[in-house]
Amino acid sequence: MLYLTEEDVRKLLPMAKCIRLMRETFEALASGTALNQPRRRLFLPTGSVLHSMAGAIGPYFGTKYYAVNVKHGAHFFFSLFDAATARPLALMEANWLGQIRTGAASGYVTDLLARKDAAKLGVIGSGFQARSQVEAALAVRKIGQVSVYSRGAARRATFAEQCRRAFRVEVEATETAAEAIEGADIVITATFAKDPVIEDAWIRPGAHINAMGSNNPQRREIPASVIARADLIAVDSIEQARIESGDLLLAWSEEDWKTPRLVEVQNLAAYERKPDAVTLFKSNGLGVQDVAAAGFVYERALAMGFGKRIYS
Q1: What's this model's pTM, rounded to 2 decimal places?
Q2: Going by fewer Cβ within 10 Å, which terminus of the chain is more open, N or C?
Q3: 206 and 176 in a common domain
Protein backbone atom coordinates (compact mmCIF):
# COMPACT_ATOMS: atom_id res chain seq x y z
CA MET A 1 0.00 0.00 0.00
CA LEU A 2 1.26 3.44 -0.91
CA TYR A 3 1.28 6.47 1.34
CA LEU A 4 0.90 9.74 -0.60
CA THR A 5 1.36 13.22 0.84
CA GLU A 6 -0.56 16.39 0.07
CA GLU A 7 2.29 17.50 -2.18
CA ASP A 8 2.18 14.18 -4.05
CA VAL A 9 -1.55 14.56 -4.66
CA ARG A 10 -1.20 18.15 -5.80
CA LYS A 11 1.47 17.22 -8.34
CA LEU A 12 -0.39 14.16 -9.64
CA LEU A 13 -3.91 15.58 -10.07
CA PRO A 14 -4.12 18.40 -12.65
CA MET A 15 -7.37 20.34 -12.81
CA ALA A 16 -8.09 19.70 -16.49
CA LYS A 17 -7.81 15.96 -15.99
CA CYS A 18 -9.91 16.07 -12.83
CA ILE A 19 -12.71 17.85 -14.70
CA ARG A 20 -12.76 14.95 -17.17
CA LEU A 21 -12.79 12.51 -14.25
CA MET A 22 -15.83 14.26 -12.79
CA ARG A 23 -17.63 13.99 -16.14
CA GLU A 24 -16.88 10.26 -16.21
CA THR A 25 -18.03 9.91 -12.60
CA PHE A 26 -21.42 11.50 -13.24
CA GLU A 27 -21.81 9.42 -16.40
CA ALA A 28 -21.11 6.30 -14.32
CA LEU A 29 -23.70 7.38 -11.73
CA ALA A 30 -26.22 7.86 -14.54
CA SER A 31 -25.53 4.39 -15.95
CA GLY A 32 -25.66 2.74 -12.52
CA THR A 33 -22.03 1.61 -12.62
CA ALA A 34 -20.91 3.79 -9.67
CA LEU A 35 -22.05 3.91 -6.05
CA ASN A 36 -22.12 6.77 -3.58
CA GLN A 37 -22.70 6.89 0.17
CA PRO A 38 -23.73 10.30 1.56
CA ARG A 39 -21.55 12.01 4.14
CA ARG A 40 -21.83 10.77 7.72
CA ARG A 41 -20.89 12.82 10.75
CA LEU A 42 -19.95 11.90 14.34
CA PHE A 43 -20.22 14.84 16.79
CA LEU A 44 -18.17 14.83 20.00
CA PRO A 45 -18.82 16.87 23.18
CA THR A 46 -15.36 18.42 22.69
CA GLY A 47 -16.54 20.17 19.53
CA SER A 48 -14.60 17.80 17.29
CA VAL A 49 -16.45 16.20 14.37
CA LEU A 50 -15.55 13.13 12.32
CA HIS A 51 -16.83 13.17 8.74
CA SER A 52 -16.79 10.23 6.31
CA MET A 53 -17.98 9.75 2.72
CA ALA A 54 -17.57 6.67 0.55
CA GLY A 55 -18.09 5.46 -2.98
CA ALA A 56 -17.14 2.98 -5.67
CA ILE A 57 -16.33 3.41 -9.35
CA GLY A 58 -14.51 1.16 -11.80
CA PRO A 59 -11.79 -0.94 -10.15
CA TYR A 60 -11.77 1.09 -6.93
CA PHE A 61 -13.74 1.84 -3.79
CA GLY A 62 -12.83 3.80 -0.72
CA THR A 63 -13.61 6.38 1.94
CA LYS A 64 -12.54 9.92 2.65
CA TYR A 65 -12.59 10.76 6.33
CA TYR A 66 -11.65 13.97 8.04
CA ALA A 67 -11.58 15.25 11.60
CA VAL A 68 -12.43 18.89 12.27
CA ASN A 69 -12.28 21.08 15.35
CA VAL A 70 -13.06 24.77 14.88
CA LYS A 71 -10.31 25.75 17.34
CA HIS A 72 -7.66 23.30 16.16
CA GLY A 73 -8.10 22.77 12.42
CA ALA A 74 -8.91 19.90 10.08
CA HIS A 75 -7.14 16.71 8.98
CA PHE A 76 -8.11 14.89 5.75
CA PHE A 77 -7.28 11.33 4.63
CA PHE A 78 -8.47 8.96 1.92
CA SER A 79 -8.23 5.15 1.91
CA LEU A 80 -8.34 3.46 -1.51
CA PHE A 81 -9.12 -0.25 -1.99
CA ASP A 82 -9.26 -2.71 -4.87
CA ALA A 83 -12.94 -3.32 -5.70
CA ALA A 84 -12.42 -6.95 -6.74
CA THR A 85 -10.33 -8.14 -3.78
CA ALA A 86 -10.77 -5.46 -1.06
CA ARG A 87 -6.97 -5.20 -0.94
CA PRO A 88 -5.76 -1.84 0.43
CA LEU A 89 -3.98 0.13 -2.28
CA ALA A 90 -3.24 3.59 -0.93
CA LEU A 91 -3.60 5.93 1.99
CA MET A 92 -3.31 9.55 0.98
CA GLU A 93 -3.53 12.91 2.64
CA ALA A 94 -6.69 14.35 1.16
CA ASN A 95 -7.04 18.10 1.68
CA TRP A 96 -5.84 18.85 -1.86
CA LEU A 97 -7.73 15.87 -3.21
CA GLY A 98 -10.97 17.40 -1.93
CA GLN A 99 -10.13 20.91 -3.09
CA ILE A 100 -9.26 19.85 -6.62
CA ARG A 101 -12.18 17.48 -7.16
CA THR A 102 -14.63 20.02 -5.69
CA GLY A 103 -13.37 22.65 -8.11
CA ALA A 104 -13.42 20.12 -10.94
CA ALA A 105 -17.05 19.17 -10.28
CA SER A 106 -17.99 22.86 -10.49
CA GLY A 107 -15.89 23.16 -13.64
CA TYR A 108 -17.76 20.29 -15.27
CA VAL A 109 -21.16 21.75 -14.37
CA THR A 110 -20.04 25.23 -15.48
CA ASP A 111 -19.09 23.79 -18.85
CA LEU A 112 -22.62 22.34 -19.15
CA LEU A 113 -24.59 25.32 -17.84
CA ALA A 114 -22.70 28.61 -18.22
CA ARG A 115 -23.09 30.71 -21.34
CA LYS A 116 -20.49 29.86 -23.97
CA ASP A 117 -19.52 33.54 -24.18
CA ALA A 118 -19.11 33.98 -20.41
CA ALA A 119 -16.36 36.53 -19.87
CA LYS A 120 -16.58 37.77 -16.28
CA LEU A 121 -16.26 35.73 -13.09
CA GLY A 122 -17.43 37.07 -9.73
CA VAL A 123 -16.20 35.35 -6.56
CA ILE A 124 -17.34 35.70 -2.95
CA GLY A 125 -14.76 34.14 -0.63
CA SER A 126 -10.98 33.92 -0.66
CA GLY A 127 -10.36 30.80 1.41
CA PHE A 128 -8.69 27.52 0.52
CA GLN A 129 -11.60 26.27 -1.63
CA ALA A 130 -12.06 29.46 -3.67
CA ARG A 131 -8.84 29.14 -5.65
CA SER A 132 -9.65 25.74 -7.14
CA GLN A 133 -13.12 27.05 -8.03
CA VAL A 134 -11.52 29.90 -9.97
CA GLU A 135 -9.04 27.57 -11.66
CA ALA A 136 -11.83 25.24 -12.79
CA ALA A 137 -13.97 28.07 -14.21
CA LEU A 138 -10.97 29.38 -16.14
CA ALA A 139 -10.36 25.88 -17.51
CA VAL A 140 -13.77 25.72 -19.22
CA ARG A 141 -14.46 29.34 -20.26
CA LYS A 142 -12.39 32.17 -21.72
CA ILE A 143 -12.69 34.50 -18.76
CA GLY A 144 -11.16 37.94 -19.22
CA GLN A 145 -11.93 39.41 -15.81
CA VAL A 146 -12.21 38.02 -12.27
CA SER A 147 -13.55 40.06 -9.35
CA VAL A 148 -13.27 38.80 -5.79
CA TYR A 149 -14.67 39.94 -2.47
CA SER A 150 -14.20 38.63 1.07
CA ARG A 151 -14.52 40.37 4.41
CA GLY A 152 -10.77 40.75 5.05
CA ALA A 153 -9.25 43.40 2.78
CA ALA A 154 -5.69 42.08 3.10
CA ARG A 155 -6.75 38.50 2.48
CA ARG A 156 -8.76 39.28 -0.63
CA ALA A 157 -5.93 41.40 -2.01
CA THR A 158 -3.48 38.54 -1.46
CA PHE A 159 -5.89 36.08 -3.07
CA ALA A 160 -6.30 38.36 -6.11
CA GLU A 161 -2.53 38.66 -6.53
CA GLN A 162 -2.00 34.90 -6.19
CA CYS A 163 -4.67 34.14 -8.79
CA ARG A 164 -3.31 36.84 -11.09
CA ARG A 165 0.12 35.25 -11.04
CA ALA A 166 -1.03 31.64 -11.18
CA PHE A 167 -3.63 31.97 -13.92
CA ARG A 168 -2.44 35.01 -15.88
CA VAL A 169 -5.81 36.72 -15.84
CA GLU A 170 -6.99 40.13 -14.66
CA VAL A 171 -8.15 39.78 -11.03
CA GLU A 172 -9.64 42.65 -9.03
CA ALA A 173 -10.22 42.69 -5.27
CA THR A 174 -13.40 44.74 -4.75
CA GLU A 175 -14.58 46.77 -1.76
CA THR A 176 -18.05 45.20 -1.67
CA ALA A 177 -19.71 41.90 -2.57
CA ALA A 178 -22.07 43.71 -4.94
CA GLU A 179 -19.12 45.07 -6.95
CA ALA A 180 -17.66 41.58 -7.32
CA ILE A 181 -20.92 40.13 -8.63
CA GLU A 182 -22.09 43.03 -10.79
CA GLY A 183 -22.17 41.98 -14.45
CA ALA A 184 -20.70 38.54 -13.74
CA ASP A 185 -21.59 35.74 -16.15
CA ILE A 186 -20.39 33.14 -13.63
CA VAL A 187 -20.74 33.60 -9.87
CA ILE A 188 -18.90 31.55 -7.24
CA THR A 189 -19.70 31.53 -3.54
CA ALA A 190 -17.05 29.77 -1.46
CA THR A 191 -17.55 30.93 2.12
CA PHE A 192 -18.31 29.62 5.60
CA ALA A 193 -21.17 32.07 5.95
CA LYS A 194 -24.29 31.28 7.96
CA ASP A 195 -26.44 33.78 6.07
CA PRO A 196 -26.68 34.68 2.36
CA VAL A 197 -23.70 36.48 0.86
CA ILE A 198 -25.33 37.60 -2.40
CA GLU A 199 -28.60 39.30 -3.35
CA ASP A 200 -30.99 38.52 -6.16
CA ALA A 201 -30.66 42.04 -7.60
CA TRP A 202 -26.94 41.49 -8.22
CA ILE A 203 -27.46 38.45 -10.47
CA ARG A 204 -27.68 39.33 -14.13
CA PRO A 205 -30.01 37.43 -16.51
CA GLY A 206 -28.17 34.46 -18.01
CA ALA A 207 -25.75 34.07 -15.10
CA HIS A 208 -24.62 30.71 -13.74
CA ILE A 209 -23.94 30.33 -10.00
CA ASN A 210 -21.72 27.76 -8.28
CA ALA A 211 -22.54 27.67 -4.56
CA MET A 212 -20.15 25.37 -2.72
CA GLY A 213 -19.37 26.86 0.66
CA SER A 214 -22.05 25.24 2.82
CA ASN A 215 -22.76 21.58 3.49
CA ASN A 216 -24.58 22.29 6.74
CA PRO A 217 -28.39 22.26 6.95
CA GLN A 218 -28.35 25.40 9.09
CA ARG A 219 -26.09 27.49 6.82
CA ARG A 220 -26.64 29.04 3.41
CA GLU A 221 -24.88 31.38 1.01
CA ILE A 222 -27.77 31.81 -1.43
CA PRO A 223 -30.99 33.68 -0.49
CA ALA A 224 -34.40 32.14 -1.02
CA SER A 225 -35.16 34.76 -3.70
CA VAL A 226 -32.34 33.43 -5.91
CA ILE A 227 -33.45 29.83 -5.31
CA ALA A 228 -36.97 30.86 -6.40
CA ARG A 229 -35.68 32.72 -9.47
CA ALA A 230 -33.33 30.04 -10.79
CA ASP A 231 -34.57 28.31 -13.93
CA LEU A 232 -32.48 25.24 -13.07
CA ILE A 233 -30.95 24.02 -9.79
CA ALA A 234 -28.37 21.26 -10.15
CA VAL A 235 -27.13 19.14 -7.24
CA ASP A 236 -24.56 16.32 -7.03
CA SER A 237 -27.18 14.13 -5.36
CA ILE A 238 -30.73 14.89 -4.28
CA GLU A 239 -30.36 12.37 -1.44
CA GLN A 240 -27.33 14.20 -0.08
CA ALA A 241 -28.80 17.65 -0.72
CA ARG A 242 -31.80 16.75 1.43
CA ILE A 243 -29.43 15.95 4.29
CA GLU A 244 -27.06 18.90 4.23
CA SER A 245 -27.89 21.59 1.65
CA GLY A 246 -28.92 24.50 3.83
CA ASP A 247 -29.32 26.72 0.76
CA LEU A 248 -32.28 24.56 -0.27
CA LEU A 249 -33.48 23.25 3.10
CA LEU A 250 -33.87 26.76 4.51
CA ALA A 251 -35.66 28.02 1.40
CA TRP A 252 -38.00 25.15 0.57
CA SER A 253 -40.99 23.31 1.92
CA GLU A 254 -41.34 19.56 1.44
CA GLU A 255 -43.42 20.16 -1.69
CA ASP A 256 -40.70 22.31 -3.27
CA TRP A 257 -38.35 19.31 -3.48
CA LYS A 258 -40.62 17.91 -6.18
CA THR A 259 -39.96 20.81 -8.56
CA PRO A 260 -38.73 19.81 -12.04
CA ARG A 261 -36.20 22.65 -11.74
CA LEU A 262 -34.17 20.42 -9.40
CA VAL A 263 -31.92 18.10 -11.42
CA GLU A 264 -29.02 15.84 -10.45
CA VAL A 265 -25.81 16.57 -12.35
CA GLN A 266 -25.81 13.06 -13.81
CA ASN A 267 -28.97 14.04 -15.73
CA LEU A 268 -27.82 17.43 -17.03
CA ALA A 269 -26.36 16.41 -20.39
CA ALA A 270 -29.65 16.97 -22.24
CA TYR A 271 -30.32 20.41 -20.73
CA GLU A 272 -30.64 23.22 -23.29
CA ARG A 273 -29.91 26.63 -21.85
CA LYS A 274 -32.06 29.64 -22.71
CA PRO A 275 -29.98 32.83 -23.11
CA ASP A 276 -31.42 34.60 -20.06
CA ALA A 277 -31.82 31.54 -17.83
CA VAL A 278 -30.27 31.76 -14.36
CA THR A 279 -28.75 28.41 -13.39
CA LEU A 280 -27.42 27.29 -10.02
CA PHE A 281 -25.18 24.41 -8.98
CA LYS A 282 -25.47 23.65 -5.27
CA SER A 283 -22.33 21.62 -4.66
CA ASN A 284 -22.03 19.38 -1.62
CA GLY A 285 -19.43 16.90 -2.87
CA LEU A 286 -19.71 13.13 -3.18
CA GLY A 287 -17.55 10.31 -1.88
CA VAL A 288 -17.52 8.70 -5.33
CA GLN A 289 -15.87 11.86 -6.70
CA ASP A 290 -13.03 11.32 -4.24
CA VAL A 291 -12.72 7.67 -5.30
CA ALA A 292 -12.41 8.62 -8.99
CA ALA A 293 -9.78 11.25 -8.24
CA ALA A 294 -7.87 9.01 -5.81
CA GLY A 295 -7.83 6.11 -8.27
CA PHE A 296 -6.24 8.35 -10.89
CA VAL A 297 -3.69 9.66 -8.36
CA TYR A 298 -2.82 6.10 -7.36
CA GLU A 299 -2.27 4.98 -10.95
CA ARG A 300 -0.05 7.98 -11.71
CA ALA A 301 1.89 7.46 -8.48
CA LEU A 302 2.68 3.89 -9.50
CA ALA A 303 3.72 4.94 -12.99
CA MET A 304 5.89 7.85 -11.83
CA GLY A 305 7.38 6.38 -8.66
CA PHE A 306 5.61 8.64 -6.15
CA GLY A 307 4.71 7.63 -2.62
CA LYS A 308 6.12 5.48 0.14
CA ARG A 309 5.19 1.82 0.50
CA ILE A 310 3.86 1.26 4.03
CA TYR A 311 1.99 -2.03 3.84
CA SER A 312 2.06 -5.04 1.51
Answers
A1: 0.96
A2: C
A3: yes
Radius of gyration (Cα) for the chain, nearest Å? 19
**3-class secondary-structure state, position 99:** helix
Mean pLDDT of the chain: 96
Q: Give the number of C-alpha atoms closer than 13 A to the C-alpha of residue 170, restricted to the C-beta side.
A: 7
Same domain, 110 and 244: yes
Cα–Cα distance, 40 to 235 (Å, whole number): 18
Q: Which domain holds residue 253?
A: 105-285
Task: Give the pLDDT confidence of 36-85 residue by residue, as tens digits.
Answer: 999 999 999 999 999 999 999 999 999 999 999 999 999 999 999 999 99
- The separation between CA 163 and the C-alpha centre of its own chain, rounded to angstroms, equals 18
Q: 29 - beta bridge partners?
A: none
Domain count, the chain: 2
Q: Taking 80 as the threshold, does the pLDDT of residue 312 lie above it?
A: no
Cβ atoms of 114 and 120 closer than 8 Å: no
E strands of the chain, at which residues? 2-4, 34-43, 49-57, 60-69, 73-82, 88-93, 120-124, 145-149, 170-173, 186-189, 208-211, 232-235, 262-264, 279-282, 308-309
